[in-house]
Design a protein that fits this description.
33% of the residues lie in helices and 29% in strands. The protein is α+β, with helices and mostly antiparallel strands and 263 residues long. A 7-stranded mixed sheet has the order 3-4-5-6-7-8-9, sandwiched between helices. Strands 11-10-12-14-13 form a 5-stranded mixed sheet, with helices on both faces. Strands 1-2 form a two-stranded antiparallel sheet. Helix 1 packs antiparallel against helix 2 (40-56) and helix 5 (186-194) runs parallel beside helix 6. The longest helix is centred in the N-terminal third of the chain and has 19 residues, at 3-21.
Length: 263
């Protein structure tokens, strides 16, 4: 069985858990900071995903949001967000997803993101294109900010990271960007760039499980994903993520870094 098939199966399995719990009574607690919620659905979805993948590839590594897994001697690492958009989920807002990606030799080679509420399955395999519900997707063709809808996210910190994000939003609006959205599920945000719904996305700090699958989807759809400096962000570390259709990427970096763009 190929890697992408398993990634898709795992993402769908998590989505089934989401649907089972959403809108019902479930346990909710905080982790780390009081703004970062954890629900029973997060835990059950991760258990379901890891169990499914382990049956297919027992010798692979796992990097997931809710639990730590012993490292094994393998070049393959599955990167899993069992429920991206937990705060939305916990508040009854139907904007969340599962995200499953596979890394090999420091490259994402397969990824799937599933939004069970809209029945939208995004998936991609290295050098084989990106797809939404089986149909090929491409980034949009916006070339200017006035035609570019952007998406961002707010870091859990209420300190300098939040202040920097708000200042960056202001700078984009002063550059006459078409609009800025904040949906609260970074993996989905990246998928929306991949399928052309938005021209770009940025967020101060994302974990690997937030961006790995989305990174592959955007790149396979013809877009670009980098760090704040314009260089690649290490896949297995937290980092500043900037994603775009490629055409407006340098302009986005210039606004984020408060520099003059080079074209």
């Amino acid at each position: 069985m190929d890697f992408l098939t398993v990634a898709v199966q795992a993402a769908i399995k998590a989505g089934q858990v989401h649907k089972k719990y959403f809108g019902k009574s479930f346990a909710v607690r905080t982790k780390g900071v009081s703004f970062d919620l954890l629900t029973s659905a997060d835990i059950k979805a991760e258990e379901a995903v890891v169990s499914l993948i382990r049956k297919k590839f027992p010798g692979h590594n796992f990097l997931a949001e809710e639990n730590r897994y012993p490292a094994v001697d393998s070049g393959y690492t599955w990167v899993i967000d069992p429920l991206d958009g937990t705060n939305n989920f916990a508040c009854g807002i139907p904007v969340f997803c599962s995200s499953v990606a596979l890394i090999y030799n420091n490259e994402v080679i397969a990824g799937a993101v599933y939004d069970v509420m809209r029945n939208e399955l995004f998936c991609a395999a290295k050098n084989k294109g990106a797809f939404l519900n089986g149909k090929r997707i491409r980034v949009n063709t916006a070339r200017t900010f006035t035609k570019s809808l952007l998406i961002t996210g707010f870091y859990y910190s209420r300190g300098k990271e939040m202040e920097e994000t708000l200042e960056t939003i202001k700078r984009f609006f002063l550059r006459r960007v078409l609009g800025i959205r904040r949906f609260g599920a970074a993996a989905l945000d990246l998928c929306y760039v991949a399928c052309g719904r938005a021209a770009g996305f940025w967020e101060f700090e994302l974990s690997p499980w937030d961006f790995c699958a989305g990174k592959l989807l955007i790149e396979e759809a013809g877009g670009r994903v980098t760090g704040k400096s314009g260089k690649n962000t290490p896949l297995l570390q937290k980092g500043f993520i900037v994603a775009s259709n490629g055409t407006i990427h340098r302009r986005m970096l210039a606004v984020i870094n408060k520099t003059t763009p080079t074209f």
